[in-house]
Amino acid sequence: MNKSEFPKITFGIIVLNGEPFTRYCLRSLYPFAHEIIVVEGGHEDAKAVCTPDGHSIDGTLETLYKFKEEEDTENKLTIVTRQGFWPKKDELGRHRTPQSRAYAERATGDYLWQIDIDEFYKAEDMKFIIDLLRKRKDITAVTFATRNFWGDLNYKIDGWNLRRGAVYFHRLFKWGRDYKYVTHEPPTVANENGVDLRKIKWIKGGWLSRRKVYMYHYPHLFPWQVRQKTMVYKNEKPDSCADILDWAENNYFKVSNPFNIERHYWLPSWLEKYHGDHPAEIVNMMTDIKTGKIKVELRKNDDVEKILQGKNYNLKVFFMKTNNIWDYYSKYFLFQISRVKNIPGKIKRNLFKNSNVVSH
Predict the structure, then answer these.
(1) Is residue 2 part of a domain?
(2) Which domain holds residue 317?
(3) Best exposed site among 40, 79, 271, 328 by fewest CB in 10 Å?
(4) Which regions of the chain does DSSP assign to beta strands (E)?
(5) Does residue 248 belong to any structural domain of this protein?
(6) Tens digit of pLDDT for each residue in 14-71?
Protein backbone atom coordinates (compact mmCIF):
# COMPACT_ATOMS: atom_id res chain seq x y z
CA MET A 1 0.00 0.00 0.00
CA ASN A 2 1.38 3.39 -1.02
CA LYS A 3 1.70 5.66 2.05
CA SER A 4 0.52 8.67 0.07
CA GLU A 5 -2.74 7.06 -1.02
CA PHE A 6 -6.08 7.55 0.72
CA PRO A 7 -7.02 5.98 3.01
CA LYS A 8 -3.96 5.87 5.22
CA ILE A 9 -4.61 3.27 7.93
CA THR A 10 -3.18 3.48 11.44
CA PHE A 11 -3.42 0.09 13.14
CA GLY A 12 -3.55 0.38 16.94
CA ILE A 13 -2.76 -2.62 19.14
CA ILE A 14 -2.70 -3.21 22.90
CA VAL A 15 -0.70 -6.31 23.76
CA LEU A 16 0.26 -8.17 26.91
CA ASN A 17 1.67 -11.70 26.54
CA GLY A 18 0.78 -11.89 22.88
CA GLU A 19 2.94 -14.84 21.90
CA PRO A 20 2.93 -16.67 19.59
CA PHE A 21 0.65 -14.31 17.62
CA THR A 22 2.79 -11.15 17.67
CA ARG A 23 4.97 -11.41 14.58
CA TYR A 24 2.22 -13.08 12.51
CA CYS A 25 -0.29 -10.37 13.37
CA LEU A 26 2.19 -7.65 12.41
CA ARG A 27 3.03 -9.42 9.15
CA SER A 28 -0.65 -9.66 8.26
CA LEU A 29 -1.16 -5.91 8.75
CA TYR A 30 2.09 -4.61 7.32
CA PRO A 31 1.18 -4.46 3.59
CA PHE A 32 -1.96 -2.41 4.37
CA ALA A 33 -0.50 -0.11 7.04
CA HIS A 34 0.39 3.54 6.97
CA GLU A 35 1.64 2.84 10.49
CA ILE A 36 1.27 0.25 13.26
CA ILE A 37 1.34 1.52 16.84
CA VAL A 38 1.69 -1.19 19.49
CA VAL A 39 1.13 -0.39 23.15
CA GLU A 40 2.77 -3.11 25.24
CA GLY A 41 2.27 -3.90 28.91
CA GLY A 42 -0.38 -4.53 31.52
CA HIS A 43 -2.54 -2.45 33.82
CA GLU A 44 -2.64 -2.70 37.61
CA ASP A 45 -4.89 -5.77 37.72
CA ALA A 46 -2.64 -7.76 35.36
CA LYS A 47 0.22 -8.06 37.87
CA ALA A 48 -0.21 -11.84 38.10
CA VAL A 49 1.02 -12.23 34.51
CA CYS A 50 3.47 -9.29 34.26
CA THR A 51 7.06 -8.59 35.14
CA PRO A 52 7.51 -6.40 38.24
CA ASP A 53 7.70 -3.33 35.99
CA GLY A 54 4.54 -4.14 34.05
CA HIS A 55 5.72 -5.94 30.90
CA SER A 56 4.89 -9.26 29.23
CA ILE A 57 6.46 -12.40 30.65
CA ASP A 58 6.36 -14.48 27.46
CA GLY A 59 8.83 -12.58 25.26
CA THR A 60 6.31 -10.33 23.51
CA LEU A 61 8.33 -7.15 23.97
CA GLU A 62 11.47 -8.85 22.69
CA THR A 63 9.52 -10.10 19.66
CA LEU A 64 8.33 -6.57 18.92
CA TYR A 65 11.86 -5.17 18.99
CA LYS A 66 13.10 -8.06 16.88
CA PHE A 67 10.36 -7.39 14.30
CA LYS A 68 11.30 -3.71 14.34
CA GLU A 69 14.93 -4.57 13.67
CA GLU A 70 14.50 -7.36 11.13
CA GLU A 71 11.19 -6.87 9.33
CA ASP A 72 10.14 -3.22 9.63
CA THR A 73 11.73 -2.23 6.33
CA GLU A 74 9.46 0.81 5.84
CA ASN A 75 9.65 2.08 9.43
CA LYS A 76 5.92 1.60 10.03
CA LEU A 77 6.09 0.14 13.55
CA THR A 78 6.04 2.28 16.71
CA ILE A 79 6.39 0.49 20.05
CA VAL A 80 4.94 2.32 23.07
CA THR A 81 5.84 1.17 26.59
CA ARG A 82 6.13 2.67 30.04
CA GLN A 83 8.01 1.84 33.21
CA GLY A 84 5.36 0.53 35.54
CA PHE A 85 1.76 -0.44 34.99
CA TRP A 86 -0.75 1.33 32.78
CA PRO A 87 -3.81 2.84 34.48
CA LYS A 88 -6.64 0.35 34.56
CA LYS A 89 -9.52 2.75 33.87
CA ASP A 90 -10.29 6.11 32.36
CA GLU A 91 -12.35 8.91 33.87
CA LEU A 92 -15.54 7.03 32.97
CA GLY A 93 -14.37 3.82 34.62
CA ARG A 94 -13.84 2.01 31.29
CA HIS A 95 -11.13 -0.63 31.25
CA ARG A 96 -8.01 -0.25 29.04
CA THR A 97 -9.02 3.13 27.60
CA PRO A 98 -5.72 4.78 28.67
CA GLN A 99 -3.78 2.20 26.63
CA SER A 100 -5.99 2.69 23.58
CA ARG A 101 -5.56 6.43 23.86
CA ALA A 102 -1.80 5.89 23.90
CA TYR A 103 -1.94 4.71 20.30
CA ALA A 104 -4.81 6.97 19.24
CA GLU A 105 -3.04 10.16 20.30
CA ARG A 106 -0.07 9.15 18.13
CA ALA A 107 -2.14 8.20 15.07
CA THR A 108 -1.55 10.12 11.83
CA GLY A 109 -3.72 8.07 9.48
CA ASP A 110 -7.08 8.85 7.90
CA TYR A 111 -8.56 5.88 9.77
CA LEU A 112 -7.79 4.18 13.07
CA TRP A 113 -8.16 0.38 12.94
CA GLN A 114 -8.11 -1.25 16.37
CA ILE A 115 -6.60 -4.75 16.48
CA ASP A 116 -6.15 -7.33 19.23
CA ILE A 117 -3.05 -9.46 18.79
CA ASP A 118 -5.18 -12.62 18.29
CA GLU A 119 -7.40 -11.02 15.61
CA PHE A 120 -6.73 -11.55 11.91
CA TYR A 121 -8.35 -10.74 8.56
CA LYS A 122 -8.01 -12.33 5.17
CA ALA A 123 -5.92 -10.18 2.84
CA GLU A 124 -8.72 -10.02 0.27
CA ASP A 125 -11.13 -8.78 2.95
CA MET A 126 -8.74 -6.03 4.01
CA LYS A 127 -8.42 -4.98 0.38
CA PHE A 128 -12.22 -4.93 0.15
CA ILE A 129 -12.49 -2.65 3.21
CA ILE A 130 -9.78 -0.27 2.00
CA ASP A 131 -11.38 -0.06 -1.46
CA LEU A 132 -14.72 0.61 0.23
CA LEU A 133 -13.22 3.48 2.24
CA ARG A 134 -11.62 4.87 -0.90
CA LYS A 135 -14.93 4.83 -2.78
CA ARG A 136 -17.09 6.04 0.11
CA LYS A 137 -15.18 8.74 1.91
CA ASP A 138 -18.22 9.50 4.11
CA ILE A 139 -17.81 6.25 6.10
CA THR A 140 -17.00 7.03 9.73
CA ALA A 141 -17.06 3.63 11.45
CA VAL A 142 -16.93 -0.07 10.59
CA THR A 143 -18.03 -3.01 12.73
CA PHE A 144 -17.10 -6.62 11.91
CA ALA A 145 -18.84 -9.90 12.58
CA THR A 146 -16.39 -12.38 14.06
CA ARG A 147 -15.61 -16.02 13.60
CA ASN A 148 -14.27 -17.28 16.94
CA PHE A 149 -12.05 -20.33 17.36
CA TRP A 150 -11.29 -22.67 20.24
CA GLY A 151 -8.49 -25.18 20.78
CA ASP A 152 -7.67 -25.61 17.10
CA LEU A 153 -8.38 -24.06 13.72
CA ASN A 154 -10.96 -26.79 13.12
CA TYR A 155 -13.32 -25.74 15.94
CA LYS A 156 -15.42 -22.59 16.13
CA ILE A 157 -17.45 -21.22 19.03
CA ASP A 158 -21.12 -20.36 19.04
CA GLY A 159 -23.40 -19.49 21.93
CA TRP A 160 -25.99 -17.20 23.47
CA ASN A 161 -23.56 -14.39 24.23
CA LEU A 162 -22.40 -14.25 20.61
CA ARG A 163 -25.94 -14.51 19.26
CA ARG A 164 -27.02 -11.59 21.44
CA GLY A 165 -24.56 -9.15 19.93
CA ALA A 166 -21.09 -10.16 21.16
CA VAL A 167 -20.27 -11.52 17.71
CA TYR A 168 -19.89 -7.90 16.52
CA PHE A 169 -16.70 -5.94 17.19
CA HIS A 170 -16.37 -2.19 16.60
CA ARG A 171 -12.94 -1.90 15.05
CA LEU A 172 -12.40 0.81 12.42
CA PHE A 173 -12.96 4.55 12.84
CA LYS A 174 -12.39 7.67 10.81
CA TRP A 175 -9.61 9.73 12.39
CA GLY A 176 -8.71 13.37 12.27
CA ARG A 177 -7.60 16.43 14.12
CA ASP A 178 -9.41 16.87 17.47
CA TYR A 179 -11.01 13.42 17.23
CA LYS A 180 -11.05 11.58 20.54
CA TYR A 181 -10.84 7.94 21.52
CA VAL A 182 -13.62 7.95 24.12
CA THR A 183 -13.77 4.41 25.56
CA HIS A 184 -12.26 0.98 24.97
CA GLU A 185 -15.31 -0.95 26.20
CA PRO A 186 -17.00 -0.64 23.81
CA PRO A 187 -14.52 0.93 21.38
CA THR A 188 -15.91 4.42 20.74
CA VAL A 189 -14.45 7.36 18.85
CA ALA A 190 -15.96 10.86 18.62
CA ASN A 191 -15.29 13.54 16.02
CA GLU A 192 -14.22 17.13 16.66
CA ASN A 193 -17.83 17.97 17.63
CA GLY A 194 -18.05 15.16 20.16
CA VAL A 195 -20.35 13.01 18.00
CA ASP A 196 -19.99 9.23 18.22
CA LEU A 197 -18.80 8.11 14.78
CA ARG A 198 -21.25 5.19 14.81
CA LYS A 199 -24.05 7.76 14.73
CA ILE A 200 -22.91 9.22 11.40
CA LYS A 201 -22.04 6.77 8.61
CA TRP A 202 -21.66 3.35 10.17
CA ILE A 203 -20.97 0.14 8.22
CA LYS A 204 -22.39 -2.65 10.38
CA GLY A 205 -21.12 -6.17 10.81
CA GLY A 206 -24.25 -7.77 9.41
CA TRP A 207 -23.77 -5.94 6.12
CA LEU A 208 -20.19 -7.18 5.88
CA SER A 209 -20.99 -10.76 6.90
CA ARG A 210 -23.53 -10.99 4.10
CA ARG A 211 -20.55 -10.25 1.84
CA LYS A 212 -18.49 -12.92 3.60
CA VAL A 213 -16.17 -10.37 5.23
CA TYR A 214 -15.25 -11.34 8.80
CA MET A 215 -12.79 -10.77 11.56
CA TYR A 216 -11.16 -14.09 12.52
CA HIS A 217 -10.70 -14.23 16.28
CA TYR A 218 -8.58 -16.82 18.12
CA PRO A 219 -9.24 -16.07 21.82
CA HIS A 220 -9.22 -19.68 23.09
CA LEU A 221 -6.65 -21.25 20.79
CA PHE A 222 -3.82 -22.07 23.22
CA PRO A 223 -3.72 -23.12 26.90
CA TRP A 224 -1.28 -20.27 27.67
CA GLN A 225 -3.77 -17.72 26.34
CA VAL A 226 -6.55 -19.02 28.54
CA ARG A 227 -4.37 -19.30 31.66
CA GLN A 228 -3.13 -15.75 31.59
CA LYS A 229 -6.34 -14.12 30.30
CA THR A 230 -8.53 -15.74 32.94
CA MET A 231 -6.19 -14.57 35.71
CA VAL A 232 -6.42 -11.01 34.39
CA TYR A 233 -10.21 -11.10 33.99
CA LYS A 234 -10.69 -12.47 37.52
CA ASN A 235 -8.76 -9.55 39.01
CA GLU A 236 -10.03 -6.94 36.56
CA LYS A 237 -13.74 -7.84 36.75
CA PRO A 238 -14.31 -9.65 40.05
CA ASP A 239 -18.08 -9.30 39.92
CA SER A 240 -18.73 -10.78 36.49
CA CYS A 241 -15.71 -13.11 36.36
CA ALA A 242 -15.55 -14.43 39.93
CA ASP A 243 -15.67 -18.08 38.81
CA ILE A 244 -13.66 -17.79 35.60
CA LEU A 245 -10.71 -19.84 36.90
CA ASP A 246 -13.10 -22.67 37.74
CA TRP A 247 -14.62 -22.35 34.28
CA ALA A 248 -11.18 -22.65 32.66
CA GLU A 249 -10.25 -25.69 34.71
CA ASN A 250 -13.52 -27.51 34.06
CA ASN A 251 -14.49 -26.38 30.58
CA TYR A 252 -11.29 -25.52 28.74
CA PHE A 253 -8.42 -27.63 30.04
CA LYS A 254 -10.96 -30.42 30.24
CA VAL A 255 -14.58 -30.30 29.10
CA SER A 256 -17.03 -31.23 31.82
CA ASN A 257 -19.94 -29.40 30.17
CA PRO A 258 -19.84 -29.19 26.34
CA PHE A 259 -22.37 -26.33 26.49
CA ASN A 260 -20.22 -24.05 28.63
CA ILE A 261 -17.00 -23.77 26.66
CA GLU A 262 -16.73 -19.99 26.15
CA ARG A 263 -15.35 -17.61 28.80
CA HIS A 264 -18.70 -15.82 29.23
CA TYR A 265 -19.59 -18.88 31.28
CA TRP A 266 -22.93 -17.58 32.62
CA LEU A 267 -24.55 -18.19 29.21
CA PRO A 268 -24.64 -21.44 27.18
CA SER A 269 -22.04 -21.92 24.46
CA TRP A 270 -20.86 -24.80 22.29
CA LEU A 271 -18.41 -25.94 19.63
CA GLU A 272 -18.99 -26.67 15.99
CA LYS A 273 -16.73 -28.14 13.35
CA TYR A 274 -15.27 -25.50 11.03
CA HIS A 275 -14.60 -26.36 7.38
CA GLY A 276 -13.68 -22.93 5.99
CA ASP A 277 -10.44 -21.10 5.30
CA HIS A 278 -8.31 -19.00 7.64
CA PRO A 279 -6.15 -15.91 7.10
CA ALA A 280 -2.77 -16.83 5.66
CA GLU A 281 -0.64 -15.71 8.63
CA ILE A 282 -2.63 -17.84 11.08
CA VAL A 283 -2.04 -20.84 8.86
CA ASN A 284 1.67 -19.94 8.73
CA MET A 285 1.77 -19.68 12.52
CA MET A 286 0.18 -23.08 13.05
CA THR A 287 2.50 -24.63 10.46
CA ASP A 288 5.53 -23.19 12.29
CA ILE A 289 4.23 -24.61 15.58
CA LYS A 290 3.47 -28.08 14.24
CA THR A 291 6.84 -28.32 12.44
CA GLY A 292 8.69 -27.27 15.61
CA LYS A 293 9.95 -23.93 14.32
CA ILE A 294 8.42 -22.28 17.38
CA LYS A 295 7.48 -24.01 20.61
CA VAL A 296 3.92 -23.54 21.84
CA GLU A 297 1.78 -25.77 24.03
CA LEU A 298 -1.20 -27.06 22.05
CA ARG A 299 -4.46 -28.29 23.46
CA LYS A 300 -5.13 -32.00 23.04
CA ASN A 301 -8.54 -32.23 21.46
CA ASP A 302 -9.48 -35.90 21.67
CA ASP A 303 -12.27 -34.95 24.05
CA VAL A 304 -13.63 -32.40 21.58
CA GLU A 305 -13.73 -34.93 18.76
CA LYS A 306 -15.58 -37.35 21.02
CA ILE A 307 -18.13 -34.65 21.91
CA LEU A 308 -18.69 -33.58 18.30
CA GLN A 309 -19.19 -37.18 17.22
CA GLY A 310 -21.65 -37.85 20.03
CA LYS A 311 -24.95 -39.42 19.04
CA ASN A 312 -27.22 -36.53 20.03
CA TYR A 313 -24.79 -33.61 20.03
CA ASN A 314 -26.15 -31.86 16.93
CA LEU A 315 -29.69 -32.25 18.21
CA LYS A 316 -28.70 -30.65 21.51
CA VAL A 317 -27.02 -27.78 19.65
CA PHE A 318 -30.23 -27.22 17.69
CA PHE A 319 -32.15 -27.16 20.97
CA MET A 320 -29.71 -24.61 22.41
CA LYS A 321 -30.10 -22.35 19.39
CA THR A 322 -33.89 -22.57 19.56
CA ASN A 323 -33.97 -22.07 23.31
CA ASN A 324 -31.84 -18.93 22.95
CA ILE A 325 -34.54 -17.36 20.77
CA TRP A 326 -37.26 -18.31 23.27
CA ASP A 327 -35.25 -17.12 26.29
CA TYR A 328 -34.28 -13.81 24.70
CA TYR A 329 -37.66 -12.84 23.31
CA SER A 330 -39.64 -14.05 26.33
CA LYS A 331 -37.56 -11.76 28.55
CA TYR A 332 -38.02 -8.94 26.06
CA PHE A 333 -41.80 -9.57 26.00
CA LEU A 334 -42.00 -9.60 29.80
CA PHE A 335 -40.04 -6.36 29.94
CA GLN A 336 -42.48 -4.70 27.55
CA ILE A 337 -45.41 -5.94 29.63
CA SER A 338 -43.84 -4.43 32.75
CA ARG A 339 -43.53 -1.11 30.92
CA VAL A 340 -47.20 -1.24 29.88
CA LYS A 341 -48.25 -2.03 33.45
CA ASN A 342 -46.44 1.08 34.64
CA ILE A 343 -48.29 3.40 32.23
CA PRO A 344 -51.43 3.92 34.41
CA GLY A 345 -49.26 4.84 37.38
CA LYS A 346 -47.28 7.30 35.27
CA ILE A 347 -50.52 8.89 34.01
CA LYS A 348 -51.82 9.25 37.57
CA ARG A 349 -48.57 10.80 38.76
CA ASN A 350 -48.59 13.28 35.87
CA LEU A 351 -52.23 14.21 36.49
CA PHE A 352 -51.53 14.72 40.18
CA LYS A 353 -48.47 16.80 39.34
CA ASN A 354 -50.39 18.95 36.87
CA SER A 355 -53.28 19.45 39.32
CA ASN A 356 -50.85 21.05 41.75
CA VAL A 357 -49.48 23.51 39.23
CA VAL A 358 -50.63 27.04 39.99
CA SER A 359 -51.38 29.17 36.94
CA HIS A 360 -50.26 32.82 36.84
Answers:
(1) no
(2) 309-339
(3) 328
(4) 9-15, 35-40, 77-80, 111-116, 119-120, 141-150, 155-159, 168-174, 180-184, 187-190, 202-203, 215-220, 269-273
(5) no
(6) 999 999 999 999 999 999 999 999 999 999 899 999 999 999 999 999 999 999 999 9
